[in-house]
Amino acid sequence: MSQVEKSAVKSLLSMHRTYADLDEYLEAQLKEAGYAGVDIQRNPVGTRITVFVTRPGLAIGRRGTGIKELTERVAEKFNLPNPQIAVSEVERPELNPRIMAQRTAQIVARGTAFRRAANWTMTTIMEAGAMGCEIGVAGKLRSDRAHKEKYRMGVVPKSGETADEIVRSATTDVLLKLGLFGIKVKIAIPDALPPPIEFSEITEAQQAPAAAAPAAAAPAPAPAPAPAPAPHAPAQRVVVAEAAVATPAAAVVDAPAPQIAAAPAAPAAEPEAPKAKKVRAKRATKATAGTRKRATKKKTDEKEAKEDKQIAKSES
């Protein structure tokens, strides 16, 4: 790595370290106003600092005195070129983990049990429309030995791109008589999820009418206007037309004889279906079998009659 690259990396690291120190300083100065974060942008004119708080009136002060003093202190301490601080109000503080962690720490500092404070915080977050939340409390909670407890409501992704996009976390601490308590809040925000992908299946039958619709919607071309009569029409034609109108008998024309439509040709004989052939063959077989049975029965009857006659003669 060359010396120029090293200096560029060092300057970048020093800039981010300055931003982190500025964030901690503003959190300590605007704690009562409900500090939620800061956005820093550098431009050729100077440095624009946007502070997000829940109560902007406390941050601005009476007639803007508070924000002016804060701007002077920031310029002196962090050596920022021409800093300009703007205050913005947080729209939904219940979905900001930094604000909810500070509120939980304030409730615990007043003497409320940490479990009750954690449950109240989770209920508030879920009622605001969060997909899920998780609160962890660590320290000397019940005895001289430190341990930690976690409370969870809803769904909080733990890994993957989904967790990176929708889960926001913040950590704070509060000093009590038993010792230092650490509070960590995680909130899963459903609005940060990308919209789901939907697949629409369009068949060829549906595409054909859609393609034919623009052609059908196009207006039909207007009929061409009839040609105007020639201005130099001879007077003799006009006279003939008037004579034809005055004598309708001369305009009578014999109607043509009605034409007799030719009889449609007889359809060609369709080949006999194999099923019909089978049925006919079956019927012929049955008829032949019946004829044979009748012939056999007739012969048997004649034979029996001859035997009866012989028996009668012998008896006589």
What does this structure look like?
By secondary structure, this protein is an alpha+beta fold. Among the domains are: 3-90, K homology (KH) domain (GMP Synthetase, Chain A, domain 3, 2-Layer Sandwich), CATH 3.30.300; 95-192, Ribosomal protein S3 C-terminal domain. It is 47% helix and 18% strand. The chain has 9 helices and 7 strands. It has a 4-stranded antiparallel sheet with strand order 5-4-7-6. α4 (97-109) runs antiparallel to α5.
Q: What is the strand arrangement across the widest sheet?
A: 5-4-7-6
Corresponding CATH architecture of the domain at 95-192: 2-Layer Sandwich
How much is the average pLDDT? Answer: 78
Using the coordinates shown, work out and report the CATH topology of the domain at 95-192. Ribosomal protein S3 C-terminal domain
Radius of gyration in whole Å, from Cα?
A: 52 Å
How much strand content do the residues show?
15-25%
Low-confidence stretches: 230-255
Per DSSP, the total helix count is 9
The coarse silhouette is elongated
SSE order: HEEHHEHHEEHEEHHH
Largest sheet: 4 strands, antiparallel
* The CATH superfamily title of the domain at 95-192: Ribosomal protein S3, C-terminal domain
- Helix proportion range: 40-55%
Please tally the β strands and state the result.
7
Report the end-to-end length measured between terminal Cα atoms. 148 Å
CATH class of the domain at 95-192: Alpha Beta
User: What structural category arises from helix and sheet content?
Assistant: alpha+beta
